[in-house]
Write a structure and sequence with these properties.
heterodimer, A: 145 residues, mainly alpha, Butyryl-CoA Dehydrogenase, subunit A, domain 3, B: mainly alpha
């Protein structure tokens, strides 16, 4: 848990904009402990954890309206202009695109790994990543002007 | 262009390096221990319930057998001084002990 908590918490913090990220991370590790016997070792353990984290995030969103505009501002230290911009850009994406961007660009997951984590077909995941890339670049370029 | 954009996004989205957060790790470990305790208490409660239900079933079976051995000319009423009455009283006492909350607390 100590080995992976940094990356799981970072993924959830950026996904949620910081709100309730640690609670979700705790729930993720608890679920991983409960389901430990179901891990078959057929992929990276971190990928399995991130998949659980994604599902915890989706469960937490049910019945709640997602706020995008405030979320990015909560997640980032005030003295990092670039990270403020990327956080705002992330907050402007739908959750699935945000998760795909975080996994493929932030966590260094391959498209196949990210598709397994998000439980999506590979082709769908590639489309989502492409849309996320375009959206992020457009928003970052818009912030620079 | 796409490769430049990917490189830029990877740099911006890279997870900052730091050591493990011991406060968070302790928090998760406490939650795991609490769940382990809850599971152990639940298992103990189910074991006790199963044992008590088996004992109650055995008592009821004994009561039924005793009543079947009643004399043919009896009124099929329970004799207040017979073994069936004693068994019923014992069963009633047992049920009363089981359902009282303060008696349930002795296992904690």
């Amino acid at each position: 848990m100590r080995r992976h908590e940094r990356r799981v918490r970072s993924f959830l913090a950026r996904l949620t904009g910081g709100e309730g990220a640690d609670d979700l991370a705790q729930e993720t590790f608890l679920k991983a402990w409960r389901m430990a016997s179901s891990w078959r070792g057929d992929g990276p353990y971190l990928g399995w954890l991130l998949r659980i984290a994604w599902r915890c995030f989706l469960s937490s969103r049910r019945g709640r309206r997602e706020t995008t505009s405030e979320a990015g501002e909560q997640a980032v230290a005030a003295d990092e202009i670039a990270r403020i911009d990327i956080a705002r850009a992330l907050a402007g994406l739908p959750a699935r695109e945000r998760a795909a961007a975080l996994l493929c660009f932030g966590e260094g997951c391959s498209h196949a790994e990210a598709a397994a984590i998000l439980d999506l077909p590979l082709g769908t995941l590639k489309s989502i990543v492409a849309r996320a890339r375009t959206g992020l670049v457009r928003q970052l370029e818009g912030h620079e002007r | 262009m796409s490769a430049d954009a990917d490189a830029m996004l990877k740099a911006l989205l890279a997870v900052p390096g730091r050591g493990p957060d011991e406060a968070f790790a302790s928090r998760v470990e406490r939650a795991v221990r609490a769940e382990e305790k809850l599971r152990a208490a639940r298992r103990a409660a189910w074991r006790r319930f199963t044992a008590e239900m088996a004992a109650a079933a055995a008592l009821l079976a004994a009561f039924v057998l005793i009543e079947r051995r009643a004399p043919a000319d009896s009124l099929n009423l329970i004799s207040p001084f017979g073994p069936a009455a004693a068994g019923l009283m014992l069963l009633a006492l047992w049920i009363w002990v089981s359902i009282r909350p303060d008696f349930g607390a002795r296992d904690n």
